[in-house]
Amino acid sequence: MESNLKTNINEEILNIEKIRNDFPILKQLIHNKPLCYLDNAASTQKPQIVIDTINNFYSTTNSNIHRGVHYLSEKSTQAFENARIKVKDFINAKSEKEIIFTSGTTASINLVAQSFGRKYLNEDDEIIVTTMEHHSNIVPWQLLCDEKNANLKVVKINDIGELLLDSLNDLISEKTKLISVMHVSNTLGTINPIKEIIKIAHQNNVPVLLDAAQSIQHIEIDVQELDCDFLAFSGHKIYGPTGIGILYGKENLLDEMPPFMGGGDMISKVTFEETTFNELPFKFEAGTSNIAGAIGLGAAIDYVKSIGIENIKEYETNLLNAATDAVKEIPGIKIIGNAKEKTSVLSFVIDNIHPHDIGTFLDFEGVAIRTGHHCTQPLMDFFKIPATSRASFAFYNTLEEVEQLTIALKKTIEVFN
Ligand code: C6P
Fold this sequence. Notes:
By secondary structure, this protein is an alpha/beta fold. The protein has 2 domains: about 1-45 and about 310-415, Alpha-Beta Complex (Aspartate Aminotransferase, domain 1), CATH 3.90.1150; about 50-305, Aspartate Aminotransferase, domain 2. It is built from 14 helices and 17 strands. It has helices at about 15-20, 50-60, 70-90, 105-120, 140-150, 165-170, 195-205, 225, 250-255, 290-305, 310-330, 355-365, 375-385, 400-415; strands at about 30, 35, 35, 100, 125-130, 150-155, 175-180, 210, 230-235, 245-250, 265-270, 275, 335, 345-350, 365-370, 370, 390. The protein has a 7-stranded mixed β-sheet, with helices on both faces. Strands 13-14-17-16 form a 4-stranded antiparallel β-sheet, with helices on one face. Helix 4 runs parallel beside helix 5 (about 140-150). The radius of gyration is 22 Å and the shape is globular. The two termini are about 25 Å apart. Residues about 1-10 have low confidence and may be disordered. The structure holds ligand C6P. Ligand C6P binds near residues 106 and 234.
């Protein structure tokens, strides 16, 4: 389909044809229509190199890590630790000791809540989050606060979906033990001013956890430059496998934190009287890790680096702008989330049509979007809506797909009216 959209999008930034060929799943027809996959904020598709790397691992190398002296175990360990170095370099951490493999963003945040939080939070202390957080960055803190008789404080947002930093200044106090904030909103696409947040936090000696689940795949992240204290992300949102994720933490903080889970790999010596713990990062990696997942994530990071995160950002911003302009023109549609700084997410509601009906109808047109509260129910309450429809873009999406989305939306409105 030739796109008629008037935009300055420059597909020359990336070699889209080649890129799309790297993703076998995109070649499918769904309900006899070309698959238009716009549910990337939920999970991204995997390039062939990631699929091959995992296949190759299980076909040639599979063995448990850090345990055996045999050839395969050593090879497996080397590949696993090599993936850790790739992650460390990708986010510019100081040391591999600061890179903990977890099962995903949710697990990483829970680790901080249960380890850092249990150690440092006392009665009446406070944790600060924001109105737009994902449930994974709310519920772990609620559980902790319940246990400790501490309080969760919430930074407010404005009607276009931007954080009100004055509200943060008002909330922060000597009771604040941590600020945990998303870098990019999965529902609104808002890019939060994290440098300013970290500056305010550190002026008050408060550490910051960044939920980078929706930024790691779109924006260059340098943890030393940002000076964030913790950072969490999921492999599956950056073209890697599911079931693998990262917790970055500053070494001095991780060093002082107690283990979260007990088991194999995280111990130094166990007796019935006393157990001593392994050094970082293994102290936080109890049990057999998702070895293939970590190695697959390493391959995904190599792939993203080969395209260039700056190119990705520029291309996706153009795509989002084109989609926003096109969708805005459709009568009856209201965009939810109009922050000045946004990336890759377009949430909207349509008069008199429930988002689930929109999602189902779009599916018949081959267009995959997500509908619902996107695990951000407090944010839905703020906007006084039960749900939105959300198109979310990756660098393999095209202007033609934006057109496919808008045509499908117009059709949906026509049918329902
Ligand atoms: N958001 C979405 O469709 P996990 O499930 O642990 O990989 O990621 C959780 C998570 C945490 N923070 C943010 C900002 C997120 O967007 C997500 C996952 C998906 O928006 C699934 S609800």
